[in-house]
Design goal:
By secondary structure, this protein is an alpha/beta fold. Helix content is about 40%, strand content about 10%. It has one domain (about 25-325): Vaccinia Virus protein VP39 (Rossmann fold). It has a five-stranded mixed β-sheet, with helices on both faces. Helix 4 links the parallel strand 1 (about 65) and strand 2 (about 110-115). Helix 6 (about 195-215) packs across helix 10. The two termini are about 25 Å apart.
Length: about 325
């Protein structure tokens, strides 16, 4: 997951392997979101995907999951789609590269699918690291409770990345093809710090600041670290799709997948979230802060969940469910 084809990709990879902190073993929250959206995807395909038109030019239906990582979730998601279009035999292949830019030949893909990926930026806004800029994000790792200049820098970078993403998908899709996307969303009128995602990142930021106060990492290291993630509103995403002009919006709505069955109490939920965040962000954190502080960082992170469960757990997890059709 990196930048567009015109820039040098940055490394925002999840933990690989089958170890305790591997993404494959700690991505069931995303899997839960995929299953929770299965009915909506099946309905969209049944109502909006015209197989007669698509198969008039090719006997093969090509389906792509953009922004996937290691683990079983891609197979779960794509099997859901395959079952929905009643095709039992298929070939699978992995294509490395940034999902923001071009990956496939022009007019070659019938169905694009993306789950819990489109909140990841193509790169961190450069002005966040400029001490002379009003967008310098000193003392923070994200845009929670940040000045408007910081929030605007994130929003502008997100818009640039989505513009590249939609342009690439438009070129790669056949006319009448479908794109289905599920990713975190920020309901209009709710402060980002009060959302599920914002609350998770705020506790991570607090843990890093504690380490900086104790001299285990430097304040400069915290100042120069910013999470490459932005959670848009429905209105923002709708405006970006309309600006692109290549797609009809078949469906765009906020949805809440609820709580995973394994999270029966606040303790189990806290532990699951900590493992989830570690699997997804450990490599990025090691790259910036070094490996020596990682265990202590996540131990502190876990303790904050135990001390302040009310900070995250009441926050409602909200996803944006989007179905687009290529004009």
């Amino acid at each position: 997951m990196g930048a567009s084809a015109t820039t040098t990709p940055e490394l925002y990879a999840m933990n690989g392997g089958d170890g305790r902190f591997g993404y494959a073993k700690n991505s069931f929250l995303q899997g839960h979101d995929i299953n929770a959206s299965k009915g909506k995807i099946s309905e969209a395909i049944a109502e909006k995907l015209d197989l007669k038109v698509l198969l008039s030019t090719s006997k093969t239906i090509r389906i792509v999951d953009v922004g996937c990582s290691v683990g079983p979730n891609t197979f779960l998601a794509i099997q859901n789609i395959i079952e929905s279009i009643e095709r039992k035999q298929y070939f699978a292949a992995g294509v490395p590269g940034s999902f923001h830019g071009r990956l496939f030949p022009e007019g070659s893909i019938h169905v694009f699918y993306s789950s819990i990926a489109l909140h990841i930026l193509s790169k961190v806004p450069e002005e966040l690291l400029d001490k002379n800029s009003p967008s310098w994000n000193k003392g923070r790792i994200h845009y929670m409770n940040a000045p408007d200049e910081v929030v605007n820098a994130y929003a502008t970078q997100y818009a640039k990345g989505i513009e590249i993403f939609l342009d690439a998908r438009a070129k790669e899709m056949v006319c009448g093809g479908m794109a289905v996307m599920i990713f975190p969303a920020n309901p209009t009128g709710i402060p980002y710090s009060q959302t599920f995602t914002g609350a998770m990142f705020e506790l991570l930021e607090s843990s890093l600041l504690d380490l900086a106060k104790e001299g285990k990492i430097s304040e400069a290291q915290v100042d120069s670290f910013n999470l490459p993630m932005y959670v848009p509103s429905l209105e923002e995403m709708m405006e970006l799709v309309q600006k692109n002009g290549c797609f009809d919006i078949e469906k765009m709505e906020l949805t809440s997948p609820g709580v995973h069955a394994s999270m029966t109490n606040t303790s189990s939920m806290g532990k699951a979230i900590v493992m989830h965040v570690r699997a997804g962000m450990e490599r990025m954190l090691i790259q910036h802060f070094g490996s020596e502080i990682i265990d202590e960082l996540f131990n502190r992170y876990a303790k904050k969940f135990e001390e302040f469960p009310h900070h995250v757990l009441p926050s409602k997890k909200v996803l944006l469910f989007v179905v687009l059709k290529r004009k």
